[in-house]
What we know:
Blueprint: H1 2-22, H2 25-52, H3 58-80, H4 86-104, H5 109-127
Helix pairs in contact: 1-2, 1-4, 2-3
The protein binds fe (ii) ion.
Fe (ii) ion binds next to helix 3 and helix 4.
Amino acid sequence: MIDNQHRQILDYINILEEVRKTGDRGRIKEVLEDLIDYTQSHFIFEENLLEQVHYQYLPSHRGIHDLFVKRLNDYREKFHQGLSIENDLYRLLSKWLINHIQHDDQDYVDAVRDNMIHYLKVQEQKKGKGWFARFFS
Ligand SMILES: [Fe+2]
């Protein structure tokens, strides 16, 4: 699910890349709003998941998200003031998000996987042998 959400964000970044060239502020506004909204809900989804698996670095991961959301909202604000921020925003998004997905997000994959395996093993003890194996066959 997280991978799909990341893909969706990348799609938005690609749309922004196209739309910024047209200079059409109406369309830029639309993409900008969708992208910011979607990124924010994605961060919330991710943080909830990390909370469930007791990811030990969640506070700093959340801090990184919060700072980034603040930067996105600053851009939104500037756009609404009539400034043309789409090129800067595009550069920030493509660098920051891709770096974040490849590095910061990669870091929690093991924690989530370990937690899921642990959960499945506990379920197997409760529900009998073979239950766990069915997930991996
Ligand atoms: Fe993240």
